[in-house]
Structures
1.
Amino acid sequence: MSSETTNLERSRANGLVIRSAVVASVGGLIFGFDTAVISGTTKALEVVFDLTPQSLGFTVASATIGTIVGALSGGGLADKYGRKKLLFAIGALFLLGSLGTALAPGSAYWLFLASRFLGGVGVGMASVCAPIYIAEIAPARQRGRLVGLVQFNIVLGILVAYASNAIIRAIAPHDTAWRWMLGIMAVPSIVFLLLLFTVPETPRWLMAQGRDNEAETISLKLCSSQEESDQELTEIRQQIKRDLEQSKTKVNFFSKRYRKVMLMAIAIAAFNQLSGINAILYYAPMVMQEAGAGENASYLMSIAVGFMNLVATMTALTVIDKLGRRTLMLVGSIGYLVSLGFLTFVMFRFEGNFTSGSSVLVLIGLLVFIAAHAFGQGSVIWVFISEIFPNKVRGAGQSVGSTTHWTFAAITSGVFPSMIAFLGGGWSFLIFFLCMCGQLLWVLKVMPETKGIPLEEMSKKLGVE
């Protein structure tokens, strides 16, 4: 075989890997879009469905409840039916959720809730399945940066949602703009479903199902050479054999042995949401308007928040393996306290007398807050949880961390409108500030550094095995 032919095959293989990773990561973009798009509709939803602050909180949190269900079931469904089939199901859930929320009449509040719940289930499944698919489809030399596409697209989706809301608000009729904001997600959902027809199932799942011939054919297309494909398939066979052997040994995840790492996963996931991040992402325009911004200005300010989220996330991803997880968490924790302390002061100082000037101060505080979150918790949480658990219980550990995260997300996003209505912005941000004092102490006293430690040696360092 000539060197020209070899280079051509390598180019084609890399092209399929990249295309497959990009397509899967589109699920992450829709995930991020769905997380933030509701922020532009809260005022309209209060009117259309006659919502109180409590029922508005439940309406917003209904998607997060669905996310918990999706996160809990996503791994098992991906193993049973395949990564690609589950990605199709996720796309369908995104589409149904988008159209259902956009078209639900004012007399069918139950339909709106059910549709939002279904979209949330899709988000939860996407948070599990998209990284798994990319990790299994990519050769080892490309795996890290390609899996990082999911996190990048989640943050990009949040920014796109804020920008989309602002544009639609400017051009759509006032009484139906909220429907267009929610319905526009149908477009990337359809594109996602169509693109899935162009990508393969993962070789690892196919081999786990005994479909070796298909796995070998796809692996050869994904790898740069026959030798690389053979090596990958050998590693897969060995891993499947180890998994089967381990499955015969009963492991009690809730034993004293794993208590330390389980509590670490619960702590970092709970602190992630006790910062108030999802509440702020869901209600960004409401927070701006509470601080004195006009409606149009509040939507433009939300775009600035989304852009800062994107920039800080990309910065963190470039240094997380150099500075370490604990260092990023320490910087992020200090940033939380500075920004939340500032926001608390501004809210108390201008309470009852908010102006356009005070809204600018709140925007500055929110930008620092978002930067602190994206650089610290936003970039560290899933990496840290995936590293601290031994291989035998890593799946269970991921589930505990994910379920804790989405449960606290449901709680904070559900109660935030009531907090603003009954306590005001000052007390609300003060509560988040106090929670982040707890996180700083946890980082300083408890959190270990996991940078550069092989997974096989992590258990020994943490005293688990």
Note: The longest helix spans residues 3-37.
2.
Amino acid sequence: MAACERRRDQGFVTAEAAVVLPVLVLFVTALVWALLVVAAQIQCVDAARMGARAAAREDPPGRVVEVARAAVPSGAKVAVSRESGHVRVVVVARPPLLHGLPFDIREEAVAAVEETVGRSRAGAPAG
């Protein structure tokens, strides 16, 4: 009778493994996906901050975009806008390897424009 019970138990173990393994694979896949999204978000935050710092130093807009693009995931969009005394850099990217997902990662940074020595904000020499 003990041998018969063991055979039935082996069948339950096989059935449980057949249910648990796909769930485990889905869980690990979701974890990897979440890590990729978080890594892309951190890159976007860094890029927006770097771009805002460059824009606050009154670097040319092309240079600001170049500085921000150096830190973003490939295919990201960088937008720079200037408002009264402030600059805003917005970075929008799709998570890498997950292009089919219906969302983008969007981060922005705002910085106050720095006064440069020997020059007013309008670009005319201070005097």
Note: The chain has a mean pLDDT of 80.
3.
Amino acid sequence: MRQSTFSAAIADRPLRPFQVVVMIFGLALLVIDGIDLQSLSLVTPVILEEWGIDRASFGPALAASLFGMGFGSFFGGMLGDRIGRLRTLFIACLIFGASTMIAAHTNTVWEMTAVRVLGGLGFGAAYPNALALVSDWVSEKWRPHAVSFLSVGIPVGISISAAVMPLLLPAYGWRGAFTIFGLVSIVLGVLIVLVLREPPSFLLARGKRAAAQKSAARVIAADIELLPESLQEAGVPEGELVGVFHRRNLRLNIGMVISFSATTTLVYGILNWTPELLTSAGFPLDQALRASFWQGILSIVGGLSAGFTTRTFGSRTVTVVGAAAILATIVALGVMVGGLDGAPTPVQRETIILLEGLAVGLVSMMITVFYVVMASGYPHSCRAGGIGFVITSGRVMSITMVMGGGWLMNLGTNFVWYFVTLAVIAVMIFAAAFIVDCQIEPKRKAVVV
């Protein structure tokens, strides 16, 4: 009987059907995550009219999920490393599915806020564990493409939610729509547990050799005896426990906290304030919303392209070029918007819309690149926890930018301090290229070596 680690056994093999199934379920989970996450904002006008309140009063309910997601990403990631990705994903589905169903029975802002905080815990726990599960099952060769594939899940879910909600509201109302979304989430959680399996490396690390062999047989030959994954090449002594805050991960943690926080802050800072920015600059509302549409489209394109660019050019080069392109786009956008004198001309309008979409598309690409780096950089023993820790760190700056964006726009003239702040944050993206010590090597370099 041959002996091999699971990662070595799948290193040069094409994707097997079960690996594709894992990826599809991971994508489906994040699509449902996006649907549930977006559902409240879509029905806000209906709820405001039903409850007889103004939009300012409803703010806490809309922001509640972000706070819950911050805690859910960190603790959910840690839980996934401890009890398993599948169990944690099942718990996450139960939490955000049940919370969506419970939200259908709320009647006050604070009831809705409390339920959405709870749901945010589930939303937050789903992402790092879905990425970790798929990353554990695929080889290093396919990992960038798999992570890129999963990265579009939430944007697609948001789009589906926007398309389906108008069809559900006339027949079921917002309460019925929430019940349907929540039920689908729970059903998906059950299917994940029934169809998928924990990664062999995770099982083997916990002494479950028989279960690891049975799980691995879905993608490799049954006569291969699995060996534990080794961290010797990373300078970790045999048998030493590697957690999120182990010295091995120091530079990865620092670089990702700085740069990933910057990218997520830019996304929230641009997406949430684009309609207000452009209408204040003289754009008709329909044109401002068209910019938001293209931001969504280019966000998906950017996410899908990250796997190819990272594998081809390497993560360090992509980070430097991407950060420079983002900075240039923000500066150009600031100059264009700041230079408007009255209503924009057709050329100015189309240029600004293009720059708004390009900025979000580039930032989305960089977010996915960082997910690829984290999925490859953190060992399987703390992969979900590491990704969750970084996501949680990014929430602090993101929430601050969302809450302070309007204040920044009011400072000075022509939104100068808003764009200066975005530019400073964009510079922080460069940190990952020079601090992180586990970069993805270019494909051509890997071949030569």
Note: The longest strand covers residues 2-5.
